[in-house]
């Protein structure tokens, strides 16, 4: 099987048309209306207008030369209010998208949840409430039954850490709550939702791959002091092991459970939950952006940074992939997001000479190749993102896209990085060094 080359997006960040064809509000629609929640008061109401411009965007994907497109389904678009039957007008959009992709020789890779919980389910308790896991499994089967005949790979959740921590503990993402014990309950119910949905989808008898996508990075101590080492252990526990240990080993790490108890939080595990959560994965999506250097007082950032102030640590990408292969053997991986926002400057023609993004991507592609050469079972690399888009709490300021979007006109202009990515994919295919 050939190594997969792709790009990724998410529904709320690009689709727009937030009230079209029966779609109801998600928690992000509500959050964006909260004064001060999103930079400049930006919303996803227009985004990249992908809902109406989808055929044009798929044609651009074909020009990039990718063989896989990872996108998410808008839950409130296909199941308004998170309850009841599928919305025919909402699912029809994804029917058309899948067919457009296949006609262009591009495999669709679906993410079922990329943070846009129907507002009614949040009103009923959200992810800290166990019933949301069951509602998610019901929704997942609705979509699966309509599209599994043409979609070969399915991701249940994107970055459940962000959903739980940013949304329910830190309050910087929707729904904007600040309740650490609730965030910990959300972690378990997100993983339970994954397990329930994966089990139901597998029970349909389709020849597909099913997995989950985690945002993962490693933490390193700033010094060798016991305090810095313990800060690193805690970060690794909450960011990596709290998710991979139950998914692969069927247990939460003892030290993490103790740390949580010390903060008044309990994982609400019931009998049978961990068996559901730890059913074998066909693929693990790894979203990698950077490693962190930690001291007891917080994160230490030095060296080269992206436009958002994130460290640039491609060597950490290789180390992480090798670590996953060592600590969680037998788990096929795909790098499902990797990219960076920089201070793009467009010329008079709209073209962006983004050499810094090219260098970033090239270093990380090389890291993936190094990890594979050292034995990591990595089967694909997807750049984030296909298009400049709505960047959550940051609004439309940061630009991650390979393709520039001029928001006032919605014109798409491939950047230098898009050209580089296309030529890189072509060169690796011609040389055939990425097969297994």
Automatic annotation (TrEMBL):
Organism this protein belongs to: Planobispora longispora
Protein name, as recorded: Beta-glucosidase
Pfam families according to UniProt: Glyco_hydro_1
Key words of the record: Carbohydrate metabolism, Cellulose degradation, Glycosidase, Hydrolase, Polysaccharide degradation
Coiled-coil positions: none
GO biological process, alphabetically ordered: cellulose catabolic process
Statement: the UniProt record of this protein carries the keyword Hydrolase: yes
PROSITE patterns per the UniProt record, alphabetical: GLYCOSYL_HYDROL_F1_1, GLYCOSYL_HYDROL_F1_2
EC number(s) stated in the UniProt entry for this protein: 3.2.1.21
Record-linked InterPro entries: GH, GH_1_N_CS, Glyco_hydro_1, Glyco_hydro_1_AS, Glyco_hydro_1_beta-glucosidase
Highest taxon of the lineage: Bacteria
UniProt-listed Gene3D superfamilies: Glycosidases
Ligand binding (substrate): 13, 114, 158, 289, 384, 391-392
Top enzyme category: hydrolase
Organism lineage string: Bacteria, Bacillati, Actinomycetota, Actinomycetes, Streptosporangiales
Keyword Chloroplast: no
GO CC annotations on file: cytosol
Family: Belongs to the glycosyl hydrolase 1 family.
